[in-house]
Amino acid sequence: MMSSSPLPEPVTTRMRQRHRTESMKAMDKCHQYVTRLFRFGHMDFEFAVWQMIYLFVSPKKVYRNFQYRKQTKNQFARDDPAFLLLLFVWFVISATGLSLALKLHFLGFVKFLFWVVFIDCVLVGALVATLFWFVTNRYMRSSDTEDVEWGYAFDVHLNAFFPPLLILHVFQLFFYNVFISEDYFIARLFGNTLWMISVTYYCYITFLGYSCLAIVRHTQTILYPLVPLFFVYLVSIIAGINVCRVMMDFYHYRVY
Fold first, then answer.
1. Which long-range contacts link 246-253 to residues 24+ away (Cβ below 8 Å)?
2. Which family is annotated (predicted)?
3. What is the reported pTM?
């Protein structure tokens, strides 16, 4: 029985050199990004605000800029941390509002802020980004010369995370104690619909993030989970499950 012959040495060497070069470039980009976190004067906050607005009204325009960055700087991922810093500001604002709605003490506010930033956004986002990074590069990539950057996958998560953050952690606050937390059918319908809208935003913006990459195909599969989620949404309303109140109770007992 003949064993398969290994790759020729020059090919193996080139592959190793390519991976080593890509790793060094990724580390260098990460170092530059972290360094810029402390240089507020070099950040374009006006453009970051523009991105946040258009993630609501026209997400496609946001990803056109990612394509322009690829042409000019040879990377899709953000190199300006202004968006990340503004997102953290919204975390503080939303955590303050939710702490007041849940009547949390200061330590509870700190715990809640920590949970939302590092668990809900960073940890879960890193897992989701890694999953999409692996699946797109392994099964959905149409070119062997380029791959999807992990940093870009995490940027897509941050983009998709922002609208649900404002809908569920800011807009909902104006209605929770006076309306959504009640047992009425209309209150349950309104609160669960906010969650359905938020999930739809997340899936749609994620879909746009990968569909704008020429090297990724079959991106419509990212929208498929919306079908079973819609049925879960209907069942929750019929079964009398108030998703907003369930999540509020979860956060309250988690950080109180």
1. 247/168, 248/101, 248/102, 248/176, 248/181, 251/98, 251/102, 251/112, 251/115, 252/102, 252/104
2. Belongs to the unc-50 family.
3. 0.84
